[in-house]
Amino acid sequence: MIPWMIHQRKLARQRDCRIVGIQFKDAIASVLTNLKAGYSIENAFREARKDMELLYGKKSLIGGHLNKICKGLKNNIPLEKLLFTFGNESENPDIQEFAGVFAVAKRSGGNMTDIIGRTIGVISQKIEVEKEIEVLISAKRMEARIMNFVPFFIIFYIELTSRGFFEPLYHNVFGIVLMTICMVVYVAAYLLSEKIVNISV
């Protein structure tokens, strides 16, 4: 039960990481629009928070992170430091790389509009590739999940039609050891199938 919960939490973190990456692309697109409208970079992020709350809601992942950034700016924390924190908390490599590039550009006086525009392009391309991969492997992922349930269906069917068939496997040492090995093999096969169908870009 505990390994299963740990695995599900890992999958949930990966899902949140992908979602916040997509939302981050829209957020910095809003920042770029605000910069072109004449806002400072800090105010551009403040306005982006309002846009993202309208687009995704106040309880969205990006809404929560941008809210932390705005609170940090109110407390005079440098924006680059807040972006580093955002990247570490989200565990998204795109956000972490953007934070690093942003910090260097701000120190050296780089063109923020150009940098953010390029970042949007890179993230957009990555998202498109992920979508294409998702379409290509969606059928295989469904097949893998069906196959993962087949052993349980077989056991349920045999137990339903031939009661007592598995009794010898649960009341002696050899049977317990054999079923334990089978369970370990099944879990390993399940984890392997999940790893195969979850391709990261």
TrEMBL record:
Name this polypeptide is given: Flp pilus assembly protein TadB
UniProt-annotated location(s): Cell membrane
Keywords, sorted A to Z: Cell membrane, Membrane, Transmembrane, Transmembrane helix
Topological type in the membrane: Multi-pass membrane protein
Keyword set includes Iron-sulfur: no
PANTHER family listed in its UniProt record: INTEGRAL MEMBRANE PROTEIN-RELATED, PILUS ASSEMBLY PROTEIN
Keyword ATP-binding set for record: no
Main location as per UniProt: membrane
Domain Type II secretion system protein GspF residues, every copy: 30-158
Origin: domain of life: Bacteria
